[in-house]
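Subject: Aminopeptidase Q

B.,
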Amino acid sequence: MLIASQLEPTYARTVYPCFDEPAMKATFNIRIVHDPSYVALSNMPAIDVSEMKDENGSLWTVTTFNTSLKMSTYLTAFVICDFDYVTRTERGNEIRIWARKEAVKNGYVDYALNITGPIFSFLEDLLNVSYPLPKTDLVALPDFGAGAMENWGLMTFQESSLMYLPSDKLTNRKAMIAIIVSHELGHQACDMLRRFFFLFKWFGNLVTMNWWNDLWLNEGLASYFEYLGATFVEPKLSLDKIFYDHVVQPVLREDNEIGVRSLSESEDKIKGSFSLMSLFDSITYNKGASVTWMLSSFLTKKLFIRALSSYLKEFSFSNANQDDLWTHIQMVVDAQDEVQLPASIKQIMDSWTCQNGFPVLTLNLTTGTISQEQFLNKKKENSTDSYNNTWIIPISWMRNGSSQPLIWLDKSSKVFPEMQVPESEYDWILLNVNLSGYYRVNYDQLNLKRLACLLENDPKAIPAVSRFQLIDDVFALTQFGYIHIETALELTKYLGREDELFIWNVVLLNLVPENLESTLKNYEVYPLLKKYLLKRMLPIYHYYAGFIRQNVDALEDDYFAQVYLEKLFATACWLGLQDCLNLSSELYAKWMDNPEYKIPFLIRRTVCCYGVAVGSDKEWNFAWEMYNHTDSTKEDKDILLSAMSCAKDSWLLYRYLQYGLSDTLFSSNCTSIIILYVVTKDIGHRIAWEFVTENW
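Prediction pasted inline below.
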């Protein structure tokens, strides 16, 4: 048995009578009566544990907790469990990590324990604010819908977000934990490292938004700090690449529909048209973090942190709205003369938080003109009507590889003489260097040709994050009708010289369908794609295939290999690269010879799929046998369920679908999964449809 609470946003009122509003802060005295074989946890340390008998004479334990600090109702919390814990003390703050007994015994929460203290100290030193509680409990819950929650002094996590198996050499798992923990801690004043960085949340706990319409002040700031904290604990992580790849790029893909809300909406509008739960979305978290990143870039990190520190001190144990934050930043800006701004912080930042969407900038190289408009889909009728939003935009830029002073675009268009390049010169210009601003850039043909040419001659002349952004921008511009696909493809000619996996991933995201087989190999495009892409993929494919064959452990610190190598290999095999198919058969055969052998985790799904595809019923039967092995994990089982649908013999697929109907072989929820896996394969498409109609 286990009880754990999750009261954000408005569930405290279902536990005890209260004014359940974030601005109505109070202190709380909590007492819990529970079964003596369990332990009770709450926000504060227990100050008394006694016994009492009920009217039937049964014995109960009464745990009384110290009075809490002044805080919002949604942060009160309790857990009643029979877990074990590991503990250490950092600067007088006792940190305990609770989990199922066997997980603690096996050392699965040791990594989380080792990084939690240092993240707290990092945040305290950075923001110059001390953590006000005597203890912090982090609890790993086997099942937890919210993922993680920053209850003050008692944080709760989905188990997988807090556990790191010592056998897991994987950086990306550590990275995710570090990120999530630092996120939750960040409130305590902000893929697994990420979930872990939840520790960052003492912002929201110390200074809480006045009401939920400014939720981004909690979550967006915490999401920004979670990446700083994660790279502090795991210095090998490349902060700007991960931040752009995981935060900015995904939200730019969402924040361009007409109905998308702005970051900060009026209370009335939210009460009228949004549910509170819908505010816990990528606009709040990712756009909030992206806009914060931009703010800290044009202010400089030093000024930004100074302003935040003064904001946290002034509003400790109370509430604030975004204008309060702008006021504190303005005070810091006014007190110095290095950073000059074209308008007040409020005017600049309101243009990003109070308007929905974001701008696309268009540069004309010959005249040096930059214009802005809202980035919307031109292929849809009425999408461009009556939208005359303008933003105050910081533009970092370089000319011929040398960085230039920051410039600002504060109206719909403006001429920058320093950006004029006559046709007779070969200069090139790059805007929004390293993606410091939350917008897309559209270049004229002349500059694009020069950039494409530069990439073919010397790709490293453009920083990696900017190459990523160039490619992501041109494909987004194509999709929304700003430019032709040919223009976008010009920028991909250089890819044979691209050695960054996160850039390859964005290329594949745009050129190769998400579900490889579902396009049923469009007969016009597939052969062209095969010829065009394979030629360019070979160098990076062979580079990584070498590690897979000789020394896969060498990749354990390569974060992007852990996240994206699978996609690269799956695409190479899908496009029929012989070496990829051979490698899959070799590794699969090795596993068949010795079931103890571990196929390299990074490409296990691809190897199992193509091992079965290239093989016969012998390979398929082995997958089936391994699936039914008692000690295979949920993840192993899913990989094998998918692999068995990769068979190329139609009778094997028929038999597999038939197995899927059997109650004795599978649990009932597997039937639809098996049909789904089969239907997305080339030859499975028709077979699955026939099977469904026959067995309707």
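The chain has four domains: 2-108+134-161, 208-354, 358-507, 510-694.

T.
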